[in-house]
Backbone:
């Protein structure tokens, strides 16, 4: 649906060349919700702006619905844009126009007949739950309502792609959540491909199917939300994951680990999917001659799959512990020993 | 008093005619220039630094010449257009040369105030540069544009009084020839009072209209 091939974007700034995008290769499939996460300045804004040509890449290709944008004329690109809706962080609504006129704008530009516009706008306002606000002005609305209008406007021309540029970053957590649910509904009901860029990992966790981590203009990690969250590979990805999933061992527990001597050993156990529902530890305690002590643990749901994370202390003879570990490894869980310096 | 009521009303009508016609022609010239100043600047819709710099410099030149000198300097052009350099119609020409560039600047300022995010949204929708200007920029800036035109109109009232001093007719002419040169204080006070009322009225009207546009 959207494909970037060796995409580069270089800015001149005060005689110096700054590479915002440094060779991006990425493919976003039809019908998925794809998230790109990165710190500010990582290049994520430049990336999303290349999809609808708000920014022209220095080199490389952007292919949208089979069209290579680099090969199209300005006029042809305008046509492609009608097929791409965009939602902005600061909504970017026209304050001089009513909610109705704002939502109608893309249709007016496309010279759609008036009665058709009227029908479509009411449909859209109903969909975002603001049909009673048609005659209000944007400055009479709350942030969340403004973003709903922004979304309705983006959907007006029935696009097959929706770009969300930090669409929830200006909103409070509750409103963020309701906007994300709305985006999910759009994705499900209209089968619209959604590309989201954000610096909030909670946004990715809540609605994305796949995620890419961008840093210094490069994609450093990419995968399903489940894989990236359950086993992040790069330090940046780990940092992002830890902002929403506390899998760091608390300091007080680290102290305990540091003091450990003798027979106890401390392990981190990750449960995935159905294994999270099994009484694994009590089985271990019954089968082997060891005791266990849960030091820390949490369980989160990722894309509908439970994902658990436990830090457990085993007490007992080495040989028993080794056998217990072997037993645990046969289940659908991963286990590894935690040394005092590891996380 | 050396003049009768009719003479004052006649002068008032002349002033209104001068202001109205010069405002009309200045707007016709200033509006496109103001739009071009915004659209052709660096990083904007129709970036074209040659066009921008030429318009920018010409406007600066006209804006830096004092009106009283501008009026005399362009007499040949006035003669070419109107056929004479004396009278109300002739006064309109220098007034347009004065107010046109002024309006262009005011429009430029108003349009630059528009949130760049709105332009970005327009571009994302696939709007053409023309659509961006007329369906996004101007509507968003309209309330501020009205205030700009109010300032320009009041500027023209003042300038038209000056034009009167060199044979353009109107209230300024009346004030100079009777009030000043013939020491008729009453005429002087009456013309000044009329000008004060005009300016107050115009400003209030502009404010109300602008407010109405901002919050319908």
Residues:
């Amino acid at each position: 649906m959207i494909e970037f091939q060796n995409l580069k974007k270089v800015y001149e700034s005060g005689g110096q060349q700054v590479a915002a995008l440094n060779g991006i290769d990425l493919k976003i499939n039809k019908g998925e919700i794809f998230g790109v996460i990165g710190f500010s300045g990582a290049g994520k804004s430049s990336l999303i702006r290349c999809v609808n040509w708000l920014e022209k890449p220095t080199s490389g290709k952007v292919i949208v619905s089979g069209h290579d944008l680099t090969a199209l004329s300005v006029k042809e690109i305008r046509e492609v844009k009608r097929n791409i809706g965009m939602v902005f962080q600061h909504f970017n609504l026209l304050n001089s126009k009513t909610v109705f006129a704002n939502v109608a704008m893309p249709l007016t530009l496309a010279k759609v007949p008036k009665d058709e516009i009227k029908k479509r706008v009411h449909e859209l306002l109903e969909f975002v739950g603001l049909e009673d606000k048609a005659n209000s002005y944007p400055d009479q609305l709350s942030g969340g309502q403004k973003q709903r209008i922004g979304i309705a406007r983006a959907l007006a021309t029935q696009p097959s792609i929706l770009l969300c540029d930090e669409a929830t970053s200006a909103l409070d957590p509750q409103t963020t959540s309701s906007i994300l649910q709305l985006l999910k509904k759009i994705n499900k009901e209209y089968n619209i491909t959604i590309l989201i860029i954000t610096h909030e990992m909670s946004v990715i966790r809540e609605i994305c199917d796949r995620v890419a981590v961008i840093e210094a203009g490069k994609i450093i990690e990419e995968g399903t939300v489940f894989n990236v969250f359950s086993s992040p590979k790069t330090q940046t990805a780990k940092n992002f994951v830890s902002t929403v999933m506390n899998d760091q061992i608390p300091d007080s527990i680290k102290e305990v680990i540091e003091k450990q001597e003798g027979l106890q050993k401390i392990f981190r156990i990750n449960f995935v999917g159905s294994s999270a529902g099994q009484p694994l530890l009590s089985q271990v305690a019954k089968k082997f001659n060891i005791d266990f002590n849960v030091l820390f643990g949490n369980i989160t749901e990722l894309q509908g799959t439970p994902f658990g994370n436990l830090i457990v202390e085993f007490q007992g003879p080495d040989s028993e512990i080794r056998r217990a570990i072997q037993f645990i490894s046969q289940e659908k869980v991963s286990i590894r020993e935690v040394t005092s310096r590891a996380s | 008093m050396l003049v009768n009521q009719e003479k004052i009303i006649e002068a008032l009508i002349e002033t209104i005619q001068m202001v109205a016609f010069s405002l009309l022609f200045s707007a016709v010239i200033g509006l496109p220039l103001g739009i071009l100043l915004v659209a052709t600047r660096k990083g904007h819709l129709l970036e074209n630094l040659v066009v921008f710099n030429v318009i920018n410099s010409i406007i600066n030149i006209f804006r830096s010449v004092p009106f009283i000198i501008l009026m005399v300097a362009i007499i040949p052009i006035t003669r070419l257009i109107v056929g004479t350099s004396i009278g109300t119609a002739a006064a309109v020409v220098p007034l347009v040369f004065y107010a046109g560039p002024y309006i262009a600047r005011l429009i430029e300022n108003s349009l630059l105030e528009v949130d760049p995010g709105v332009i970005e949204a327009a571009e994302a929708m696939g709007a053409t540069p023309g659509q961006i200007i007329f369906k996004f920029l101007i509507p968003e800036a309209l309330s501020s544009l009205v205030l700009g035109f109010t300032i320009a109109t009041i500027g023209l009232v003042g300038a038209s009084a000056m034009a009167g001093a060199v044979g353009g007719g109107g209230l300024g002419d009346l004030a100079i020839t009777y009030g000043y040169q013939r020491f008729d204080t009453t005429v002087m006070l009456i013309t000044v009072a009329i000008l004060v009322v005009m300016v107050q009225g115009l400003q209030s009207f502009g404010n109300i209209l602008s407010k109405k546009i901002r919050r319908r």
Observations:
- The first helix of chain A runs from residue 44 to 51.
- The domain at 2-244 of chain A is CATH 3.40.50.300 (Rossmann fold).
- The longest strand of chain A covers residues 16-28.
